UniProtKB/TrEMBL annotation:
Residues annotated as domain Cystatin: 22-114
Segment forming the signal sequence: 1-24
Domain of life: Eukaryota
SUPFAM superfamilies to which the protein is assigned, alphabetical: Cystatin/monellin
Protein name as annotated: Cysteine proteinase inhibitor 5
Disulfide bond recorded as keyword: no
Annotated keywords: Protease inhibitor, Signal, Thiol protease inhibitor
Entries under Pfam families matching the protein: SQAPI (PF16845)
Residue stretches spanning the membrane: none
Keyword Iron-sulfur set for record: no
GO molecular function annotation: cysteine-type endopeptidase inhibitor activity
Length: 116
């Protein structure tokens, strides 16, 4: 478990550098019923299902944080989700959103199980 956490921290640090040298401004809590949170959560589950072949269904968003990225690089959403129909019930996901674009241009950064 400790090794997985260290790997995740490393990947997140490297991915922050990989996004055009984007500087992180820090995560802040956001309401789980925020429209962008709901959009990001539904998108994350759909994309995960496409990539994995699973048939998860979003039950609810448990915790939501967002982090504006330096410049016009978007807003990173960090969500803890409760799902049904999977091997696990809880997942953490990171979704990048550019809300000022017409399609909101969402990108799934990661999606992995967590122990609740």
């Amino acid at each position: 478990m400790k090794v997985e956490c260290l790997i995740l921290v490393f990947v997140l640090l490297v991915s922050g550098v990989a996004i055009k040298g984007v500087r992180s401004l820090g995560f802040s809590p956001i309401g789980v019923n925020n429209p962008y949170v709901r959009e990001a959560a539904n998108f994350a589950v759909r994309e995960h299902n496409k990539q994995s072949g699973e048939k998860l269904k979003l039950k609810k968003v448990i915790v939501a944080d967002n982090e504006p990225l330096d410049g016009n690089n978007g807003i990173m959403y960090r969500l803890t989700l409760e799902t049904t129909h999977g091997s696990y019930n809880h997942y953490q996901t990171f979704v990048l959103i550019k809300p000022w674009l017409p399609s909101h241009k969402l990108k799934l950064q990661s999606f992995y199980p967590v122990h609740a």
